[in-house]
Amino acid sequence: MSVNTLKIDGQDIAVEEGATILQAAREAKIPIPTLCYLEGVSPAAACRMCLVEVKGSPKLLPACHTAALEGMEVSTNTPKLQSFRRMNMELLFAEGNHVCAVCVANGNCELQDLAIRVGMDHSRFAYRFPDRKVDMSHPQFGIDHNRCILCTRCVRVCDEIEGAHVWDVAQRGEHCFIVSGMNQPWGKVDACTSCGKCVDACPTGAIFRKGSTIGEKERDREKLSFLVTAREKQQWTR
Question: Between these two residues, 225 and 59, which has the higher pLDDT value?
Fold first, then answer.
């Protein structure tokens, strides 16, 4: 097994060749904030919260998608990164309709938790208040696009773990939104198996179980971890 050695925040770390900076940092218990990253599915580098500084690189690099190479010197929590992450979080809140007080994930929301972690208590940017829809056509679940941050966790979990590929991203730029089927109401998409993996994967209250009220959304991430491990090791129970 080939091993690469590098420095993260001045700490010497040895990781298996092919590991990312994020994986190396987590093995060393060095925290790097993430939103779109989810263990067991391919990285998307969509949220840009895990950007780090690498000595010799003129730009910030996503830790979830950048290989940990021999001799790298990585900084994860410089003033520049702290400022960037706080600004990024402000933009996420400003571009959507995130009203925590009436959200099913209030108190159990990764977006909310990370906002506190990076020190965001307000947004310097004007709120856009976009006109986004709520789809309650599915018999068990609902999706509120007002709370979606386009992390694409639902897309990747449905495609790579469940194999149904119900979800995708439509449009471009500021007009992007998560779409079910061929832009059909979720309840009319025959490919959906009603497994609920997208609910467990969603970091906010965007995808939820019907009947959930404020602060009641719960997730079972252990189920996703079990399925990934079982698939990789071909260990299935009947």
Answer: 59
- 123 φ/ψ angles, rounded to the nearest 5 degrees: -115, 130
Q: Collapsing DSSP states into helix, strand and coil, what is residue 23?
A: helix
Mark whether 140 and 199 lie in a shared domain: yes
Cα separation, 70 vs 14, whole angstroms:
9
Residue 55 shares a structural domain with residue 163:
no
* Tokens 């198996």, located at residue: 193
Rg (CA), the chain: 19
Give this prediction's pTM. Answer: 0.90
Report the domain count for the chain.
2
Residues 6 or more apart whose CB falls under 8 angstroms from that of 87 comprise none
Instruction: Report whether pLDDT(236) > 80.
Output: no
Where a domain ends, among 77, 99, 129?
77
3-state secondary structure of 100: helix
Cβ pair 37, 64 in contact under 8 A: yes
Structure token pair of residue 225: 């971890």
Strand (E) or helix (H) holding 22: helix 21-27
Q: Who's near 113: CB < 8 A, 6+ residues apart?
A: none
